[in-house]
Amino acid sequence: MTNKHKNLLLLILIIAFGIFLRTININRYLTWQDEAETIINSIQVIEDGYPHGYFKGKPMFESISFIKINDPIYRYASANYYGSKYENNKGWLTYYYLAPFIKTFGVSETSTRLPFLLFYVLTTIVLYAFSNKLFKNKKIALLATFIFAIDYFAIYYEPQARYYAITIFLSLLSLYLNYLYIHSKKSKHLFLLTTVIILIFHTHIILCLSLVLFVIYYDFIKTKKIKFNRYIIYNLAYFLLFTIPWLILVEFWVNFHTHNVLDNKESIKILLPLMAIITYIIIIFIKKILENKTKIEISKTINIYLLYSCLTYVVIVPMFIPIESFTPRLFIPLIPVCSIIFAKLFYEIFKNKKTLKKNTTYILIILLIYILLLTKTGHYENYGTTNNIRDMINYAKEINLTQEDMITLNWQDLPLSLYTDYNVYHTTTLQADFFNNYQGRILAIFLYKHIEKDLPKKSVLSTYVNTHKFWLIDNDNFKIYYPRLSTCEQKTLGNDILLFDCPALSE
To answer: What's the pLDDT score for residue 362?
Structure first.
């Protein structure tokens, strides 16, 4: 067997192993809130041709980006579906990709998650090709694919029915194509790069912004090898042609009502230096264009290219992402890049006994950092907490809840709407009068963590707010519903459900 065949066989085995790790628990947990949003929007694409934010006659509420409205039932509208009949906060590519699978195989954990593993395979292939191109070393390339295959974050997020796997693949592909273009100057590479960035735009707009700024900085400022020409102008027009119409169609600008990380005073202290860096980059870019400096050779330290791509993303994302959506999973597009960097590092460390002994300290530091990332990075409870959906459904069945009755939830309302035909509302969004005067029976469900079993009713408000760290409703919101809640039987389900079982007003 030739080395070429051996490498191919190893690559296939690595891909197969990665698929195994990503599918072993694919049906273990029910669909969680954000997955349900993706699935519902995909169903809307099948039924209506576009995602519009209504399901079973009720508006959808994404995250906690709410905008006050004047409505007899709802206090707020969701920023994702505000001011337009279209979903106008995220790109639609994920929904159109998933829709054919749902139409063919229906809605299940397998049919909605398995399609996204195709992007794991594609990512691995590009990762191998990119790594080999960077270092001219197939061992490093194979090691990078193996690191990516066993990466805990990738294993966790890639199978989810969300845009995660798509963004991982497209971001890596864009970096690869940009690298090829820098070195080849071939118009086909520029065209392919522009096409991929367009696809990223229609998947994750902020990631698109990050990549565009990286291309501008690295291609025009860092390398000083790329000059404006007709091909760049053509591709700029191509990009605008396939992005601006969508922004106009969905009236994207109305979403600026929502708050982002910059609304947080502590975040501003951190981000001000980063904003200064971006401003500096823009100024230098304009200056270089005006000066029309001569070409210089690209840096021979290839890792710099990868590090700059990571830095740009880390700087840009916090500036524009809504604060309630600012979670570690936003940085998963960096996983393949980090896999390449670690593969190169490990190869240099382990290539001979001398370097291994010399760099033992570095190895231990790297392992420590990785362990800390696994243990300290949050938001891994999303899958696990979906078991509480089963508890809710079972309880509703036990008490013979009807469609005339109402279930309200502060989170996980979308999966419950997806799995059942119950009359489900998002608690925080409801008008106090509508909730307190609802004639039928109400199950008011609040998800929380680590609550005491024998919680006194008087301390419910403060304990709930203090213990529930992320998906909370504040004291004031809770108080407006308390006239009705005070008449209800209070129960706990499982480890994280506080439930108020409220009888019909006629009883």
So the answer is: 61
